[in-house]
Amino acid sequence: MTELAAALTAAMRDASTGVAVLDTDSGDWARHPWPEVYARAENVAERISDDRAATVGLVGDPTVEFIAAIPGAFLAGAAISVLPGPIRRADPDQWAVSTLERFRSIGVTTVFGHGAELTLLRKHTDAPVVHDLGQVAHPRRSTTYQGPDRAEVAILQGTAGSTGTPRTAQISPAASLANLRGLVGRVGVDQRSRLHSWLPIYHDMGLTFVLVAMLGRAELWQAPTRAFAGSPFSWLKWLTESRADVTAAPNMAYNLIGKYGGSLSGFDLGNLRFVLNGGEPVDCEGYQRFATEMGRFGFDPASLAPSYGLAESTCAVTIPEPLTGLRVDEVAVTAGASEAVRRYAVLGHPIAGMEVRCNAEQAHTTDVSGREVGEVEVRGSSLMTGYLGHAAIDPGEWLPTGDLGYLTDDGLVVCGRAKELITVAGRNLFPTEIERIAGEIDGVRDGCVVAIGTGEASSRPGLVIAAEFKGDDAPAARSAVVARVAAQCGVVPADVVLVKPGALPRTSSGKLRRLEVKRTLEGANR
């Protein structure tokens, strides 16, 4: 078997810990020891081998069978691709057709699913073959599965697609294992650890979180993402029930809890020692507000852990040491004729095997005074072999990420995306800062704002802000956004477009698609 499969086998077969999965109907947790999960994985691997499948797909809520299918694919030497289920208000049949098309386009020949998703997928295809996880991933096992010794790809991970056409990163078994070991070592995960996650497993952060628990022989408490989406404050209940010391979420979750959690009571967060913030830009104020509000439940602000990663590097790139807390770099940013102070989260140092540099030659901004801003580039043992259908990346090659940032003694700082940089009257603006400011206006939904530059090639370029709005006085909100942004950023928005909640396009992992909004607004203004 591959080195990845061998490492997971050694960890799972003799572990005294396991995984607890949430039953959303009853609200109860069902615990399964890792050795049981491994037996289920062997049965999945056997089915994959019988199908002679080199690439398998996985869809559904994170049941124990679903979780077992992941190492099952690795045991069989197959690559795995996890795709999201249908979202609310989406046409189920259209979801099934598009999901199957996506699977076929990346070479998937065997799909595993359960529940409603299984029925929908089987309704629309004979190929790829769709198996019922409940029937395949059972715990009964009398022999030891013997898989292949080699595999070129372990994970086919979709990129976020927030800045262009989504692509598929090919992650080798060695790269995946290097990333997992780097995380286990940096965070300090072992058999005493208790990890909790509601992250989607189709996202690199959610998938990696599960695998870190497996490799580290840790106790894992896994809830479906839809359970968090339907009741975000349940996250605090789950953390209390699990007594978790490690958890992770994107920035929007911390903002939501910190902003609206003032009246909550009855939780215990005193066990948390590593609370990772990743997957999207870190809002220092919102993250700190979360820590302050949760302090009454015993939360230690030193457990805050803002981090940086990308699918092309399996998941993690930079992670702070445990109990470092939120470190902030305050810098002067040019705003018209004056300077404004901006606060950026420091995202820690690279994990073992990874390197980071900021290439100033590839940057087109001088906004951050006293810092050499460049395009963030990464290389190392966790890096993908290349995008599916594209040329392979040479070992040791620096990969441009499209992010702009700089390095400090405490680690990496990311300012924004190069492709999303807004140029107005010769000045460069980071959209995340504008979006944060606009999101403070009453009625504007926090985390549901997009700032773009339109018409850069014309004689009158401008800053346009699109925001989801839920309020009674839209004209007043527009005026307030214009005034606040002008005062704090030194640029008067050319337009503020308010749309209904849920109208702004997002990726499957919830990131706003800025470039899609830009194309839509530019098309409407022609």
Automatic annotation (TrEMBL):
Q: Which Pfam families match?
A: AMP-binding
Provide a GO biological process annotation. fatty acid biosynthetic process
| Domain of life assignment | Bacteria
Instruction: Check the record and name the PROSITE patterns matching this protein.
Output: AMP_BINDING
Annotated protein name in UniProt: Long-chain fatty acid--CoA ligase
Alphabetized SUPFAM superfamilies for the sequence: Acetyl-CoA synthetase-like
Record-level Gene Ontology MF annotations: adenylyltransferase activity; long-chain fatty acid [acyl-carrier-protein] ligase activity
